[in-house]
Amino acid sequence: METKEITQEKLFQSFCAPGIFREYTEAPFEQNGYVYATNGHIIIRTPKDLYCSQAATLEKPISSFVFDGANKSIAIDFNVSEIEALKTEPEYRVLKKSQECGTCEGFGEVTWEFEHHEREDDCPVCYGSGIAEAEHKELTGNTTFGTAYVTIYDTPLDVKLFYKLVQLNEPIALIKYTSKTQAIVFKAGQYDVGIMPVSSTGDYPVIKIL
Ligand SMILES: [Zn+2]
What we know:
The chain is 13% helix and 37% strand. It has helices at 8-13, 23-26, 64-67, 80-84, 159-166; strands at residues 29-31, 34-38, 42-47, 56-57, 74-76, 89-95, 99-100, 109-114, 117-122, 131-132, 136-144, 149-152, 155-158, 172-176, 184-188, 191-195, 206-208. Zinc ion is lined by residues 101, 103-104, 108, 123, 125-126, 130.
């Protein structure tokens, strides 16, 4: 598979949640000397001087309290493959309007095979058009996380959010833990990352981190 260089700006955008009509989740923004990006469940920041791109300034203060008083430094050790073993669900990509259908490669027809008999038929994904419709989902062939959690001091975090921290590919330290209902804050290289816990893990898989 092709490896793509992920720019810092793209990295920050991947922490945003555009389209939910909150100014601060639309795009990375700058405030009190840092650049932040958040989707409301996870927030990342880096000193402004270390951010390679431009970010809009947001005046309304919304973010720094998450990081206030972050003064611990507890190294977090974990097994990445143990976490990645929780990737048990098929991954889909959402195809944009008028994109070529990936299943039939735009031909509109696929070949069905049954005991050496072959039959051409309309592609069941694009219904013979060869073009994928808006919001059309297609399997990528990869797996992704199902519902699963990691715990820090018995406090559950969504594994998908914790994995965003893992993907920064830096040594991770816990720098703030307040309670089971407040964001837990980590440091990874030049980045600080706060993750909001969930209240319960139900019967879903859990990996204890700390
Ligand atoms: Zn098709």
